[in-house]
Amino acid sequence: MEKKAAEILLDVKAVFLRPEEPFTWASGIKSPIYCDNRLVLSYPEERTAIKKGMVELIKKEYPEVEVIMGTATAGIPMAALAADEMGIPMGYVRSDAKKHGKQNQIEGKISPGQKVVIVEDLISTGGSVKTVVNALKEAGAEILGVAAIFTYGLPDSFKNFEEMGVEFRTLSNYDVLIKVAAEKGYVKPEMLDKLKQWKSDPKDESWIK
């Protein structure tokens, strides 16, 4: 599934590689990759394949799951698709509590002790997941882990998840994707060294030169 998912993400341009003209992230980091997995939603066949892959991943890694919670906003659609396929409850967690109404941060029913899997579209550093993890822990949920479509596999992500005491699993990852990209002609094979260098330390811009 790692290779198949990578092919889908590249084909629909949900993941785009441009090492010759790096993207600039909000953090200021220069990156050869841009990811918007929400684009998969616009392609029914590919969306179904990713959904089935996510369900298989969750069943394999977290068979005791009772509730799926998406991260707002990008994780919500895949959380809903997976939960519907599995026939289990679903909800989502906002980055902050609402300023009106009941001022909820968690949308959907969650009970203390329920076994939860968090669904995310992308794991970069894991920073956005931390808020979700904290909110669910405060609600008394037992977090089995995080399931995502894709990860860059950056060193900071493993460090942050270790600090949270939560594990994550993904359908595909950066290492697999760049190999598939070279095989299918999305990037020139000679660009692989640059792409690997960026991943080892994204803050070091020497890979651009």
Mean pLDDT level: 93
Would you list the SSEs in sequence order as H and E? HEEEEHEHEEEHEHEHH
Strand pairing plus helix content: what structural class? alpha/beta
Q: State the strand order across the main sheet.
A: 7-6-5-8-9-10
* Percent in helix: 25-40%
Estimate what percentage of residues fall within beta strands: 15-25%
| Distance, first to last CA | 34 Å
What is the radius of gyration? 17 Å
Per DSSP, the total helix count is 7
- Judging from the principal axes of the Cα atoms, what is the shape? globular
Number of strands: 10
Low-confidence stretches: none
- Summarize the main sheet: 6 strands, mixed
Give a description of the structure.
- This protein is of the alpha/beta class and 209 residues long.
- It is 38% helix and 22% strand.
- The chain is built from seven helices and ten strands.
- The chain has a six-stranded mixed sheet with strand order 7-6-5-8-9-10, sandwiched between helices.
- The longest helix is centred in the first third of the chain and has 18 residues.
- The radius of gyration is 17 Å and the shape is globular.
- The two termini are 34 Å apart.
- The mean pLDDT is 93.
Features:
209 residues, alpha/beta, six-stranded mixed β-sheet, two-stranded antiparallel sheet, 7 helices, globular
Topology summary:
Layout: H1 2-11, E1 15-17, E2 23-24, E3 30-31, E4 33-35, H2 44-61, E5 67-71, H3 76-86, E6 90-93, E7 106-107, E8 115-123, H4 127-138, E9 142-151, H5 155-164, E10 168-173, H6 174-183, H7 192-200
Parallel strand pairs: 5-6, 5-8, 8-9, 9-10
Antiparallel strand pairs: 1-4, 2-3, 6-7
